[in-house]
Design goal:
With about 100 residues, the chain is mainly α. It has 5 helices and no strands. The longest helix has 20 residues.
């Protein structure tokens, strides 16, 4: 798999997982429970997590980090430099912008 194709695939995976976490109705009930629990505990770190879980742009950065880390462990022989994390996050934001036009 070429490096460009790998970045595109990882970007698509990152988009889909990020969208699932933030917007998909399949997990509305558990997501709403977690968000309401976080709102009831007003410590700064819970409020930051609450902000993170409601922001597609924010969650994408962390999902991209996990995607690149998992890929790095699973695909042997394909070294991925750390800047790939940002490339995958940016690529997934292209999907966000194109598919979920606001």
């Amino acid at each position: 798999m070429t490096y460009l194709v790998l970045l595109i695939v990882l970007s698509a995976v990152t988009y889909r997982v990020s969208r699932f976490i933030v917007l998909d109705s399949l997990i509305d009930e558990p997501r709403n429970w977690v968000l309401s629990w976080l709102e009831m505990h007003p410590k700064w770190y819970w409020l930051k997590l609450l902000e993170l879980l409601g922001c597609p742009w924010c969650i994408t950065i962390w999902v991209a980090a996990a995607t690149v880390a998992i890929q790095d462990q699973l695909i042997v022989g394909m070294p991925v430099p750390i800047w790939s994390w940002l490339a995958v996050a940016t690529g997934s934001l292209v999907f966000w912008g194109y598919i979920d036009k606001e």
